[in-house]
UniProtKB/TrEMBL annotation:
The keyword Zinc applies. Transmembrane segments: none annotated. Keywords: Metal-binding, Zinc, Zinc-finger. Residues 29-78 form the ZF-HD dimerization-type domain. This is Mini zinc finger protein 3-like. GO terms for molecular function: DNA-binding transcription factor activity; transcription cis-regulatory region binding; zinc ion binding. GO terms for biological process: regulation of developmental process.
Length: 94
């Protein structure tokens, strides 16, 4: 599972208004789409419903599915994104 997070801090000159945005996304690899019958002119998938890495992150085995043996690129990529915006009103003491 790959997780990417971006944090932006912005201050508007003179107003004292600050906003902070966080964007996070989680990537999952779900059902396998490899067509095992392509050589015969047909269409058949193996039924693997979710990618499970064979090895640890950072190794070549992390890209091979333990359930079906296919490379991760054959599995459909699904991205779940989360955006959080925080607003901080101007501080009258500054």
């Amino acid at each position: 599972m790959m997780k990417k997070r971006v944090v932006v801090l912005k201050k508007t000159e003179g107003s004292g208004v600050r906003t902070r945005s966080r964007v996070g996304s989680v990537v999952h690899y779900v059902e396998c789409r490899k067509n095992h019958a392509a050589k015969l002119g047909g269409f058949a998938v193996d039924g693997c419903r979710e990618f499970m890495a064979t090895g640890e992150d950072g190794t070549e085995e992390a890209f091979i599915c333990a359930a079906c043996g296919c490379h991760r690129s054959f599995h459909r990529r699904e991205v779940n994104a989360e955006v959080v915006i925080e607003y901080h009103p101007p501080n009258p003491n500054h």
